[in-house]
Amino acid sequence: MKDKILKHALLNAISYKGKASAKVVLNKLLSELPHLKDKIKVIIKDIEKVVKEVNKLSHEEQKNQLESLGIKQEIKKPQERQIPDLINVKNKVVMRFAPNPNGPLSLGHCRPALWNWFFVQKYKGTYILRFDDTDPKVKIPIKEAYDWIKEDLVWLGVKPTKIVIQSSRLKTYYKYAEELIKLDGAYVCTCSPESWKKLVDSKKPCICRSLKKEENLKRFKSMFKTYKEGEAVLRIKTDISHPNPAIRDWPAFRIVDKSNHPLSKEKVWPLLNFASAIDDHEFKVTHILRGIDLSISDDRQKYIYNYFKWTYPETMYNGKLLVSGIKSSSEAREMISKGELSGWDDPRLGTIKALR
Ligand SMILES: [Zn+2]
After folding, report:
1. What is the residue range of 194's domain?
2. How far does residue 187's CA lie from ligand 1's centre (Å)?
3. Mean pLDDT to the nearest integer, 79-103
4. What is the whole-number distance in angstroms between the Cα of residue 207 and the centre of ligand 1?
């Protein structure tokens, strides 16, 4: 019995800066020898005596004494965080990190950038850095940001296997758009935004939806020539009575008369959901890590996958890292141009560039 008390007193002392507690030792002893419950009053005195002696010893002495009892100290190893398994892994894992180069990477980008990397490393897969840069109007890419992002990833220890720039793939997206029109999965809508909204809000199709594919192909060609910005968009045929109005015949291509894009001055641009859906298929992406705020993208893109009879990648969602007070890329860009911030590495921006 004495040995058991001593064992628990030493173990407790070693774990807690050399000071054992009689109460803890009592509990440990009782869990080992429950029948002692009736004799607490007696054994607590023994425990207190042993604890007092043990607490006088140095750390080394406590360890030696424990070993002389024939007990190796049970060191609790801190649990290592394991990278979870991906579901449905069949062949080579291919994942992508797809930032818009309209600024350097922010803290919010770190999570997807790194998690994709962790998974790819675990499965010895392919890491695609894809520049989702098909917005020449609002979230306009910055020429230098393509390199900034590559540098940010080097700093994070991420080594992409492949780099894809969407703005250099516009012709590919046009090809798929035509295919989709031929499959009767898309149409060119020339309704005004107001009349379109009125119809779609009441779950009614517009007149363009029932046009023949030949007419739609003609209209699609006209988007590159005669139609002007705002006069025509290519829409994906979805469920016009879908409970979420944002899914109903969502726009896939639009016209931008004056492209402010640093790499391309084209006039017809795919919207994010279209380009992303095509690329995930073309580059054989197997698993997508998506911000929980973008779960609607799945619902939209699956229509394209169904028309083409492709298999949709496995999708996992991660929370969005919001750091209060940190500006969006567009806000930051404006503040930098006004001189309110010293540059993209201004620490107030919370960019990786600022941390480096
Ligand atoms: Zn229409």
Report:
1. 172-268
2. 8
3. 90
4. 6
